[in-house]
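QA checklist item 7 of 12: single-chain prediction sanity check.
[x] sequence parsed
[x] length recorded as 257
[x] structure emitted
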Amino acid sequence: ESPLWMQLRLRGAGMRPINNVVDITNYVMLETGQPLHAFDFDQLDEGRLVIRTAKSGEQMETLDGVKRDLTSEMLLICDAHSPKCIAGVMGGLDSEVTEQTTTVLLETANFSSLNIRRTSRALGLGSESSARFEKGIDPGGTVFASARAIHLMQHYAGAKAYGGHIDIDSTPQERTVIELPLDQVERILGVSVPEAASREILTRLEFEVQDLGPELWKVTVPSHRTDVKIAADLLEEIVRIWGLENLPSTLPADTSS
């Protein structure tokens, strides 16, 4: 079993404790937003994973005991011969971690939100994992979440880590870079925010700020802030921390005749 404090936190989030390994993957998902899946390594043919789309007419029994009919658009995590997990949605019944499991293969990934949404809707199958992938997750947090889970397994499950990480990055993600003219701060917000305060706010929120000129910043957005795309988004970050109560209050002009 996982420690009581972890079980209580999982229950507080509406999740059922299962065993120490599965509980750790679920706990790390709650901590980081990154779904993880643990496979019973001894149940994987040839001891490897293959990522592919489903074959026409292929079926798979998921963890809830239901046999699912798959389509060619659905992404699967398989061993050498058969599917073991509907990627980003739910694992398979025949490779789940049980009390008899002695070796675990830990998988973390960043799947296309559109693909996961389509698969989840087509199967009528939602999960904590699919809910997060559908909304989009931090592409830079995958390896961190894996390392965090391994650390907890070593501490609470007596695990030994073998082989380190196998990292396949098929679509490298470039971080968003935004140019922010400082004169826009007062023009758009209607109030002057001290330059030092603006820089400190962005830096504390993990944005990287570089000077391009006397009144121009280059701001690199952290990978987990996929919602920040343009300069106006940066101004929103500045003002929400600086304090909305500091914005001037004005009434709209009376245009009635």
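[x] summary fact logged: The two ends are 74 Å apart (CA to CA).
[ ] second reviewer sign-off
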